[in-house]
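2024-03-11 09:14:02 DEBUG pipeline.ingest accepted 1 chain
2024-03-11 09:14:02 DEBUG pipeline.ingest length=268
2024-03-11 09:14:03 DEBUG pipeline.predict start
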Amino acid sequence: MRPIGEGAPQHQPQADMERWPGPVEATDSSPTDARPDGTADPLSAEGLDEQLHAETPSDPATQQPKSSNVRHLLVEIIQTVLLTLIIFAGVRSIVQNFKVDGASMEPTLHSGQYLLINKVAYLRLDGAPLEIVERTGLVEESKNSYFPFGGPQRGDIIVFRYPGYPDRDFIKRVIALPGDVVQVDKGRVYVNGTPMQEDYILSTPTYSLPKQTVPEENYFVLGDNRPNSSDSHIWGFVPEANLIGRAWLSYWPPGTWGELAHADMAGD
């Protein structure tokens, strides 16, 4: 018999020794920044850095700031407005629209009719511009003013600032020029002693006016509807400084479209 314990293994079996864990190799236990596809984790420092580089424009000079676009738009708007104002002012210095108000020019013009007024026709030079023209010899030095395009003529329909209230514009017909002698007698108008042939009037005047000479730089005007017109036979002459222009074209209503004809006022 073997003694108790005799023959007992002095060491652990080989299989047990093989199951015992061996020495552990040192490894980096920190989490990696790389994802399975090889790209950086967006939450890592490297990923955030990549995002910042992606959001930052590579060439700042090619990126126009929004403020610059707004400034450019404002400049274009201002230029357009200024150009429009210049064109409007230029047109207004040549042509002006006018609305007939009242029946004083019947039957030639009607209340509510719209006209274009030619302001260039009565362009008037005085002061320094007149002195320049006088040096050319085109006008006598004794004149106080000069109309390069002829000025008002008998029979013209004109628009002017009413002498009593310069903020109101009137429209009448020129009957007598500066220096003319005008008279109204027995329903006839006389200029320099000659009765005028007026086929354009609605009715003859129901008033009389003694002979009077039209002063220099003034005009005598009457409405075509003689009994129903506030004109020179009531309040006097029109200074040439009050002239605005000659009635040139009717454009409204459509049926009245056309150029306004010059009236022939030749005497009998």
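2024-03-11 09:14:41 DEBUG pipeline.report Confidence is low (pLDDT under 50) at residues 1-9, 13-22, 26-30.
2024-03-11 09:14:41 DEBUG pipeline.predict end
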